[in-house]
Amino acid sequence: MQMITDILGPAADYHDALHRLDHRHAVDVLRLPRADLARRRLRAISEGGREIALALPREVQLYDGAVLAIDEDSALVVRVETERWLRLAARNGAVALKLGYFCGNLHWRVRFEGEELLVALEQEDRLYHDRLAPMIAAGEVMVLPDRESQPA
Amino acid sequence: MNVSPPITRKGPGAARIGIGGPVGSGKTALIEALIPVFKARGIEIAVVTNDLVTKEDARRLQAGGLIDPDRVLAVEAGACPHTVIREDPTLNIAAADDLEAAFPGLDLIIIESGGDNLASTFSLDLVDWWMFVIDVAQGDDIPRKRGPGIVQSDLLVINKLDLAPHVFVDAAAILAEARQIRGDAPVIGCRARGATVEGIDQIADTIARELLFQDIPA
Ligand SMILES: Nc1nc2c(ncn2[C@@H]2O[C@H](COP(=O)(O)OP(=O)(O)OP(=O)(O)O)[C@@H](O)[C@H]2O)c(=O)[nH]1
Ligand SMILES: [Mg+2]
Fold first, then answer.
1. Domain contains A30
2. Could you tell me the residue range of the domain that residue A115 belongs to?
3. Residue B139 needs a FRET pair 20 to 30 A away by CA distance; which of A26, A115, B21, B83 works?
4. Which residues are in the UreE urease accessory N-terminal domain (chain A) (predicted)?
5. Residue B23 Cα to ligand 2 middle (Å)
């Protein structure tokens, strides 16, 4: 088990070294769901099969591209799993207010894209659809096709 | 290569775990059962309790003789219990920081939420990992009702297995259903109080493995 107790810095700071290691397929990735970025301690397996124990100081926060280890022979970098979003539109302004209030009450993580509201799918899809069903059935809220958008 | 030396920091400190769950499900009883197990394993712990407007649970632990009373701090939520573990956990963070400063050798700080509903969750700014404790006497349909506590917790504990026959609940069935709903996430059946306890070692093992990185098979 490899113990990690700090983040060395963003991948951009190690660009050249990571580039060289990558050529030798020596950059290992710790892929995490976005929700896990908030954790300071966790046990996980890297894509290269290494067992990782992460115990970060409380003031440190994980992020996509965080370099956890690097030397002449290998590196370990955090990558965040691709997120899925539910794209919604509201029939009018009044419904939009209601929808925003509703999502906030449920602690859903959202993003705004112009007239559309995106809800991060962090639990079973069914849970989101069940909750929205009355507003969808009433024609107040429309589920739009996912446009493969990856909000930054 | 532009490698700046890592900034020297204090180090990770003690692991912090949360225990949430409905009123009276056995959160404090579970802490009381875990304390001797951790002690026997040489794991140094401290506890933060949350009550609405009293320090009842802290007093109970302090008077129990299981733990040095100075290692127990109380936070009074003053409002819905989830506000101080999720929306604004600063009071609890301060309490945990105080314990860590007073007892630098701590391995684990346990934060008990006040009894709340099935929607309560912990902020990961406050804890590294959290478990949700329900009990069989609250109805065998509780796992089915889901709720963020049931679904999102790192460990679901179903307590008071001894009461199952008295409240017309099939313990094996409620555990099986909870496991099915949670997929890969763990569920442990438990009895925190009584002539014999059950599941406590397994809960301690899970914490020691996931948070303290001890080499215990899953
Ligand atoms: N039969 C039985 N009773 C239990 C068990 N665990 C706890 N109890 C009882 O359940 C009651 C509530 O236990 P607590 O530990 O105070 O519950 P809690 O979740 O901390 O309660 P709050 O902090 O008030 O939400 C007490 O009377 C305990 O003795 C158990 O495994 N079996
Ligand atoms: Mg209690």
1. yes
2. 85-144
3. B83
4. 15-77
5. 8
